[in-house]
């Protein structure tokens, strides 16, 4: 199934022959910016009684009001335990949702806002799982990513910064936060186009994590030796320049064949490049269709 969101708030569902199956629209809904799916839902969607059996809208929620981030930051600083806030400015007029992502465990929906806040929501009711939003950015969240086991989460913002969290597995009666902050890094000097987690290398225990920027750099982070925030924070493992003139636009893992794994990118010159994960050496370059706009996002399965 193909799903699209439009600038007038309409969500349309198509089959693989691009035939319209059904659509839904709310008069109160603004431009659709992101769509994310729970691929293993525990909720049975109610269906209408007519022959067409179209799904109906279950729930719609407005974002909760923002707390006083400055007082939260001061309390965290006194306790020497930075979890929720490092950028206390609220920017309350910037309320648009700019990124959405379901956890691979299908236990939460992460919602990124234009003001840099992150809400952790229940995957069915959309109620906040954390009473306090995470506020480690002052600009819009544009990408959210998880590891396959959902032990790590990361996002990129419009201030060229990546922020990484690890799931809180030792929540006490006094600390109910879902995520612990590992660190953040202003690692690119041009907009970040994609972020990606991957399985751990054979000689390391922590998963791999990459960011791809318009500065033509693919950066890998050292999660094994990162965290907590602020010291040592998020550490960079290596930086690879992967383009000379083109702008890299998106990044994914190539389907594994044999023992070696590969990364694939798409760039502004309509080309796809395959890199070996170990040496980041180019193993193939392929020219795609050159009509329309270059590929901005893709997913390889």
From TrEMBL:
Q: Which SUPFAM superfamilies match?
A: WD40 repeat-like (SSF50978)
The molecule here is called WD repeat-containing protein
Please tell me the species this chain comes from: Ooceraea biroi
Q: What does the record give as the organism's lineage?
A: Eukaryota, Metazoa, Ecdysozoa, Arthropoda, Hexapoda
